[in-house]
């Protein structure tokens, strides 16, 4: 069986607030995503980290559509 997580590609890195907004917009379009929050993990472990250490991953098959949506969202701001 193929591991679906290995088919995921990082498409965006930013603050937690912005990543959550983009993730919500992707979900509205039916694009599943995975948020990897290194900042939160580091804080919980007692280490420091950059608050921009939050990454957003999508399935490789959704890469083009997700990239276009992210580009459009960034142009609006």
Structure characterization notes:
InterPro entries: DUF2007 (IPR018551), N-reg_PII-like_a/b (IPR011322). This is DUF2007 domain-containing protein. Residues 8-73 form the DUF2007 domain. It comes from Marivirga salinarum. Pfam families: DUF2007. It is a single chain. This protein has helices at residues 16-28, 38-45, 63-76; strands spanning 8-14, 33-37, 54-59. A three-stranded antiparallel sheet has the order 1-3-2. The longest helix has 14 residues, at 63-76. It has three helices and three strands; from the N terminus they run E-H-E-H-E-H. The model has no long low-confidence stretch (mean pLDDT 82). The protein is α+β, with helices and mostly antiparallel strands and 77 residues long. It has a single domain, classed as 2-Layer Sandwich (Alpha-Beta Plaits).
Which range does the strand content fall in? 15-25%
The CATH topology assignment is: Alpha-Beta Plaits
Task: Identify low-pLDDT runs.
Answer: none
Strand order of the largest sheet: 1-3-2
Report the CATH C-level class.
Alpha Beta
Q: What Rg, in angstroms, do the CA atoms define? A: 13 Å
* Gross morphology: globular
Cα distance spanning the termini: 41 Å
Domain unit count: 1
Judging by the overall fold, what is the CATH architecture? 2-Layer Sandwich
Could you tell me the number of beta strands? 3
Percent range of helical residues? 40-55%
Class computed from helices, strands and strand pairing: alpha+beta
Structure, briefly:
With 77 residues, this protein is of the alpha+beta class. The protein has 3 helices and 3 strands.
